[in-house]
Amino acid sequence: MTPTTPAKPAKPAKPAKPATEHDHNHNLGRRHDIHLLHDALGPLKDREQVAARLLEASARHSFDPDKELDWEAPVEDGKWFWPPELVSLYDTPLWRSMPEEQRMELARHEAASLASLGIWFEIILMQLLVRHIYDRPVTSDHVRYALTELADECRHSMMFAKLIRKGGAPAYPVPRFHHNLARVLKSVSTTPGSFAATLLGEEILDWMQRLTFPDERVQPLVRGVTRIHVIEEARHVRYAREELRRQMVTAPRWEREFTRLTSGQTARVFSVCFVNPQVYENVGLDRYRAVAEVRASGHRREVMRAGARKLTDFLDDIGVLRGAGRALWKSSGLLA
C-alpha cells in the first residue's frame, strides 16, 4: 500500500495592507461619482457631462474677432463707446454740469479702462485655470473644455487690446498696489476660491455688456466686441458655477472658509479698480471731486449691485457669503 503524502500546511494569510490617504481619496472620489451630491440648489451635475455639452456649444458658437469684426471701419460721430447710464458719473451733479461732448469723451476713456481691467482679470483667470487642470486627466472632457476656454480668453484679451487702440484712449493699468495684491491672492487661492474669482471677473462685466451690445447709441465695433464676449462668456460662467458648486460641497472645511475670505477681498479689489481715476483727469475733470461724487452716487451704487446681484445670490445659496467674508463683500459695495 502506497503511503499517503501528508498535506502541506496552508500558508498564513497576509495581513491586510493599511489604507493610505491616496486610497481614501480615491474611494471618496468614487463615492462622489456613484452617489449624486447635492447642495442648496439641488443635485450637482456630472462634471464630464457638463464639459461635453460646453464643448459642443463651443464648436457651434466660437468666434475669431479678427474676422468677425470690421476693424477698418471708421469710428462713428455722435455714438457712445459705452452706454451713458453705465458711465461712473452718470446722474451726479458733476455729470449734469458737463457738456455732451465731455460726457461722451468720458465714456470713451471708461470703455478703455474697463477693457484694460478685463485683460488684467482674464490673465489672472487663465493662470488659475491652468493650475486647476495641472493634475487632472488630460484626455477628460473637463480638461479639454478648460483648454478651449483658455483659447477663448486669449482671443478676448487680444480683442480688448485692439479695441483700446481703435478707440484712441490709453490703456489704464490697475494701481500698482492692487496689481501686486492680486499677485498674492492668485498665488494662495484655493480651487473654490479660483472659481469664485472667475465668476466675479466675468459676471458683472457680462451684465453690463448685455445692456451694451443691443444699444444702438453705442459704436458698432463696441457692440460687436461685447456681443462676442457675452456669447462665449456664458459658457465660462456655466463651467465656473458648476465647478464652484462641486468644490463647496467636496473641498475640505479650511478651503471653504479660506475661500469665503479671499473672495470677499477679491471683491474689494475689483470694486476699487473698476474704473481708473486717471480717466477723470484725462477728460479735464478734477479727479478728487469726481471720485467723491461717484462714491456718493446712489445711481452708481445701484448699477454695481444690480450687476453683481445674480452672482451674489448664487454665492449666498452655495455658502460662500458667510462670516467675515460676507462683511468684506458688503464693504466692496457689491452686496447690499
Structure, described:
The chain has 336 residues and is mainly α. The protein has one domain: Ribonucleotide Reductase, subunit A (Orthogonal Bundle). It has helices at residues 21-34, 47-60, 65-68, 93-97, 100-133, 141-167, 176-188, 191-212, 220-250, 253-273, 278-282, 287-296, 298-317, 323-332; strands at residues 38-39, 42-43. The chain has a two-stranded antiparallel sheet with strand order 1-2. The chain is globular. Residues 1-10 and 12-32 have low confidence and may be disordered.
Separation of the first and last Cα atoms: 99 Å
CATH fold naming: Ribonucleotide Reductase, subunit A
Count all strands and give the number. 2
Question: What do the pLDDT scores average to?
Answer: 90
Per CATH, the architecture is: Orthogonal Bundle
Task: Outline the secondary-structure elements.
Blueprint: H1 21-34, E1 38-39, E2 42-43, H2 47-60, H3 65-68, H4 93-97, H5 100-133, H6 141-167, H7 176-188, H8 191-212, H9 220-250, H10 253-273, H11 278-282, H12 287-296, H13 298-317, H14 323-332
Antiparallel strand pairs: 1-2
Structure at a glance:
The longest helix has 34 residues, at 100-133. This protein is mainly alpha-helical. Strand 1 and strand 2 (42-43) form a beta hairpin.
